[in-house]
Amino acid sequence: MSFKKNDIQPNEITAHQVEQSSNLIISFIYSILIVNIFIVINFNFSSLESIGYINLTTALNFIILLGALLTIKILSIQKVTLKTFNFAYKCICLSIGIGLSILVYALYIYLPFHSYHIQFDDIFYIVAILLVTTLLASISYLTHRLVYFFLAVLPTCFPVLLIQPIQQHSISPVLSVSLNFIFIVVCLCAISVNRSHTISAKKVIQQKKLASYNQNKLRKSHNLTQDLTIKLNESQKIEHELTLKNEDLINQYIHGVQKHVYEYNNLFEKQSSIIELANRTSYIHTWEWNIRESKLEVNNHFFTNLQNDATISSNLGKIIHSNDLKNCLKQLTKHFTKKRDFFECQCRVRYEDQWVWGSLVGKVIRVDPRNEEPITMLGIFKNIEKEKKNQDRIEHSSQILQHIDVGIITLDAELNYIDANPFFYTMTGLEKNQVIGKKLFDITDDYHAQQRSLHYSITDQLFKKSEFKGEFEETFISGRKISIRCHINAVKDHYQNTLQYVGIFSDLTDYKQQEQRLDYLENYDVTTQLPNRFYYNYKLYQFLINNRETIKKIAIIYLSIDRFSSLQEFLGNKTTSELLRHVAKRLRQLNPHAFMVAYLNREDFAIVYELNHLRPSIQELCGQIITGFTDPFKFADQELILTVSLGVALYPEHALDFDQINYHANHALRQAQNLGGNTVQYYAQDKDNTYTQNINLENELRQAIKNCELEVYYQPKISLKNNKVSSFEALIRWNHPRRGLLAPVHFLPFAKQTSLISDIGRYVIEASIKQLKSWQSQQLPEVAISINVDPQQLYRGQLLHTLDTFLKKYDIHGKYIELEITESSLIEKTLYVQSLLQQLKNRHIALSLDDFGTGYSSLAYLTEFPFDIIKIDRYFVQNMHEKSQQAVLNAIIAMGKAMELTIVAEGVETQEQLEFFKQKNCDVIQGYIYSKPLSSSNATVYLKHFSPKQ
């Protein structure tokens, strides 16, 4: 029986816990007895009235405790089962718990209710001592069995937990909750202590089982050892007796046998060694076939049963490979029928569980004189596995040489052709009779002196070094010209005399052409046939390095086609590629003396021009380029006039470094594009400083977003219908760490040129929705917040996701959001914008057309897009004193009313302006006449205490 560590039954744990609880329950009884004595003494010496009921309950507890001690004593004398002990202990714990419960009820409930002169404070500390002592004693002595603990504790605490005292006006209402909390904590501690006792009990039981298991094994081992010792002594006694009786006879017999065995072994070892040496050196084995007895022996060892009858094929199939069996039987039949004097066959024979190629030779040495049937056949078997593999390897190599796409030749010691494989003839375009017997280079056309010199060098190197390896172009007498890689080696004998040469020729013609093609593709643009950016950088760098001392001045001109993106969208990719080819051709025509005209990417070209007194100045050259593009491009049955922007940087005036001069030319080009195109800009240091400042501003603004330096201000919009705040416009500000609070004019124009405007827009959306949630939580009047949306936000495709994310995050309905969109946002991608605006409307988000009246197609926008609000630009408001502007304002308001749109006038600052819009029934007013943009906290105060102007 094996010992299993985890094989512990629950009843074993229970028995251990009951056994451990025997002495501890007595200690628990004594602890409760002491507490009862303390309570009796305390009440009898405190001169309190109405203590008879207390004495009665304590007397009942004394009886219960003494009865419990007596019960435990009787059970221990009679030695009853653990099951009986377990039941008795449960009864004892429950009795003690009930008795303590009666005592707690008398102290905690009965006494304060019937004795009004006794305050709850007078007896609370006695109840606390009783409960704490009982709980501590229960944790200490009853947690081996958790049921004992709860049988004692639950009844004791029942009055305190579920029944409250009558007179408790002076007691904190938290008292009952505190007592309940203490009780729960004590119970959790008891459970934890019980778990520890259980784990300890399992370990003790495991140790006892392991000790018992080891003792049983030790006892069995001891008994087995004793039995073996007895038998060993008996065997030794018998052996000793036999040895004494037969010692002389055995010695004589052994001596004789040893002598004969020694002589026989010597002879056998000699013969075996000779046979083994012969077999190892020649790989030859002897075999004998006793046909009459159907036995086949190999090296005098029985091999298999082999009959010369109809079953010979199946019998031979066990030792001869199935593919060679037919030929073996054929050769055997020829020998048996005396068509051949010997049996000879090459086949695969099973040897040591594998097929081995062997050569079988045999002869019939005995025949039956009556019918001339063979009786015995003797033969040898030679292992030809290595020879067969070498032969296969040679044949395989020969096949490879015949079909490989490499020319293989063999030359004699005088470099005359001996042999060549078919590919060599195909490669050279020659026939075999034009090659064999000729000298190495007699089959080539070496009419050039340089080629003859190369041939002489190769021949000389072969004779001197016995090897040549190289690549060169060769023209054969067939007229074929190819690039070849040649590797010729000498084959020498043991005396280092050259016997012949073996050469390998590879045709590199296709490879060279492909290499040239790849080189072209790597350095030139396929569309324009101009050097690409990589080749431009490489050649310019080499030119500046190699001619640094002689160069006086070089102009680097960066050229870009204006409005190329729109052109590409209009023309399509195929026509755009054709246009780029025409542009490249015209640039080459306009710059015949340029060091290089290169195509960089998309619409950008570069021209490198070395300036001197014999050539036009850089101003004249750039003017010629601008003028040259005034002629229309004619292709695809259409004419197209292009304009270009040029940026110029001069070497060494503007920079000496290769990268820096390119950087300056590109910067000048971007300046020309910013001026509207069709112009030339020369690099200037002050412009570069502006660019550097923009870079620094970009870095600072990115850090501002990261460090939460941006702050949203809110300017109220007042409804003229009810004189209430209808909404706020969210306006961004920048709390710059050095420059203070910055208005949008200082950073938004630059942010719109980068992706930062989208990041700022996302920040404003979240801050605005979060502010709406704050106002709604404070139960302030319901208002909306209007948020300005930049065109970049519309076209990047993230606006819907951003709105959905924050509306869901802060649980805000879309009807509280207004998006202000400028007319410039609607110029491109009309179908895309229509779909996007409709999806916004599906989310109940209001749409406002900002800066209305300043664009080109205002009326079209109002009819094509689902706007709810039009916002009159502040330009019209500030100039409303002019009659023409008043006419525009009247028209806008009248049109908006006719289309049932909400009309918002921004920038209202004077009472006169306000009265004008009131007379025209404008819907909403925004401007300093009501309030400037406010911080979050000030906007909250404004919303709480807004009082409209009369």
Automatic annotation (TrEMBL):
Residues 393-466 form the PAS domain. Gene3D superfamilies: 3.30.70.270, EAL domain, PAS domain. Residues 694-947 form the EAL domain. Residues 552-685 form the GGDEF domain. Pfam families: EAL, GGDEF, PAS_9. Residues 468-520 form the PAC domain. The chain crosses the membrane at residues 21-41, 53-75, 87-111, 123-142, 147-167, 173-193. Keywords: Membrane, Transmembrane, Transmembrane helix. PANTHER family: BIOFILM ARCHITECTURE MAINTENANCE PROTEIN MBAA, DIGUANYLATE CYCLASE DGCP. This is EAL domain-containing protein. It comes from Acinetobacter nectaris CIP 110549. The lineage of its organism: Bacteria, Pseudomonadati, Pseudomonadota, Gammaproteobacteria, Moraxellales.
